[in-house]
User: Fold this.
Amino acid sequence: MLLTLFSGENEGLLFGVFGVIIILFLLVDLGFFHKAHQKVSQREALLQSLFWVAVSVCYGVVIYFYGEGPTASFEFFSAYVTEKALSIDNIFVILLILRYFNVKEEYYHNILFWGILGAIVFRAIFIFVGAFLIAQFHWILYIFGAFLIYSGVKIFSEEGDMEIEPEKNPVMKWARKIFPFTTNTADGKFWVKENGKRLFTPLFLVIILIESTDLIFAVDSIPAAFAISQNEFVIYTSNIFAVMGLRAMFFLLANVLDKFYLLQKGLSVVLIFIGAKMMLEMEILQDALGTIFGVEHISIPIFLSFGVIIFLLFASIVLSLIFPKKPELVESEH
Assistant:
């Protein structure tokens, strides 16, 4: 399977460049810019967000000229934008977890850093296992498509903000049985030694919950990426670039998420559209549509898909600002 990852023109080199970018900025971020615990300002969050968007756009352009051309490039941008949008719900849940445990804001960055590091590893496993299964059983793609349509309809019908109950979370119950914990936050550390015994702090528990949350959201985002492209290189790089910008987007949007309340509806329509696009490739549907419209094969070009995704997300943001949520509804949800 790894051979397929590097089979495209220059993909091995591009993947190496991708690895260098990610590792370099992880090391610089933790080892230089955030050695000490500190609160991330809105200005810093904005600059970091713009930086990761710029790096991602540049990488997509490089794929266009030095990878497999415009199709792979537009697949990269489509998967990247979709993952970015799906991250909004992820940000909201992470914020709920941090507030539930009364985590100090100066510890947010360090927690999110290690959470994203775990996401890089687990999403790689998800993507490559998914690619292997699809290579062996192509019909799994149609299951992905049906699941995305179901998820989109479910999200669209949901009303109000989600709630979390960490004390009922099975992962949290399991962690407390396996690991010895202390109530001491230990100045942002994840474990301490007390009386010669290593104990884990509440912040370590927060990391576990955030990682498990990301795995749950990956159940939507990974099938969505496969609906856009079956190229593991495109899927993984676009996914990780979106995840790398998640921390900055968290600090940027944490206090204004309520303003974009229609974004969830727009995202649900995106999932339905992507799922329907995948289901359209089914032979039985192609035969039926071919009979009705008198054409041999009906497909939605990736360029059109990218335009539809951008339009739906942009429209939901604009409509959220034009028709803001009524103050009494915002108060009732908090």
